[in-house]
Amino acid sequence: MKVKELADAAGVNPDTVRFYTREGLLRPVRNPDNNYQHYDAEDLRRLRFARKSRRLGFSLPEIRQILERADDQHSPCPMVRDVFEHRLAEVEREITELQELRTRMISALSAWQDMPDGTPDGHTICRLIEHWDDPSAPPCCGEQTS
Amino acid sequence: MKVKELADAAGVNPDTVRFYTREGLLRPVRNPDNNYQHYDAEDLRRLRFARKSRRLGFSLPEIRQILERADDQHSPCPMVRDVFEHRLAEVEREITELQELRTRMISALSAWQDMPDGTPDGHTICRLIEHWDDPSAPPCCGEQTS
DNA sequence: CTAAAACCTATGACCAACTCACAGGTCAAA
DNA sequence: TTTGACCTGTGAGTTGGTCATAGGTTTTAG
Ligand SMILES: [Zn+2]
Ligand SMILES: [Zn+2]
Ligand SMILES: [Zn+2]
Ligand SMILES: [Zn+2]
């Protein structure tokens, strides 16, 4: 298979195939006549495996490690389980962060409901933002929450 | 104020001050004697404004636009409200995506509960991943969900 | 007075996972 | 034979900083 054939077979961009090849996830054989890369069914399996792993949240270095372990006839399963649990925790942390951002945004929006638009006077840039109380920021000059 | 003084006053990295300066968010005056940048209280206000805006989800180009509008004595408020609503929608889309990823991961974890670790045999890389049914992937070779 | 510490400058690389543009070589069908 | 589709490698762009490097300046301490 040539690059585009492999890419079409896996439903990815040909540039992704070239990128994964540079990253060492695929191992084509080069045709010395025309300098083309030649991929086989094994590469298609590796590519599909890599895409499936990406959808599960694995990074490219992690996928490369898994493939290398499998190439060495060692079971990647324990590593897969371990990495995966860490990734799940990280995803949940990202979700929490984004939900906190969403909470900040919604509280800002509701506070802005009744505020009129202002014209900058050299003292203020935008009251909407400057007068917004960031719940996650430390208190500053003389402002007390109690 | 010099770079580090401004950075300390705003609680950011001095490199962030230099970066924001290159990006046009801060406008220091250069001392021709030693080539140092000199920031004033206005720059501190702009820097604090930028940081607050970042915590609200604004991008640097958006913040620059807001500052430029304010410099022109035009009210940035309508733009702020508009950009903000789009950003909120985007954040909610990102949350949904991450929650879907989390769902995929948890369903994979529970499916892996009873699966034994396997050794690669040249036909399989890692059964955990390869035999995982991606709910968001289109059906492939002969696999039927019904 | 001098030497070291702490600061300043600009430039460029780095992160993640691709995607795209470019310039030049190869191969198929018309 | 001339298109057109494909291949090659390289380098830039994405986002918001952070860090490294090399060299110049200012402050502080001895
Ligand atoms: Zn496995
Ligand atoms: Zn205050
Ligand atoms: Zn405003
Ligand atoms: Zn199948």
Automatic annotation (TrEMBL), chains A, B:
Span of domain HTH merR-type: 1-69
Task: Name the domain of life this protein comes from.
Answer: Bacteria
In this record, what's one Pfam family? MerR_1
Coiled coil located at which positions?
81-108
Quick check: keyword Coiled coil in the entry? yes
Which SMART domains does the entry mention?
HTH_MERR
Keywords, A to Z, come to:
Coiled coil, DNA-binding, Transcription, Transcription regulation
Molecular function terms from GO: DNA binding; DNA-binding transcription factor activity
Task: Output the InterPro entries linked to this UniProt entry.
Answer: DNA-bd_dom_put_sf, MerR-type_HTH_dom, MerR_fam
- Write down what this protein is called: MerR family transcriptional regulator
Which species is the source of this protein?
Marinobacter halophilus
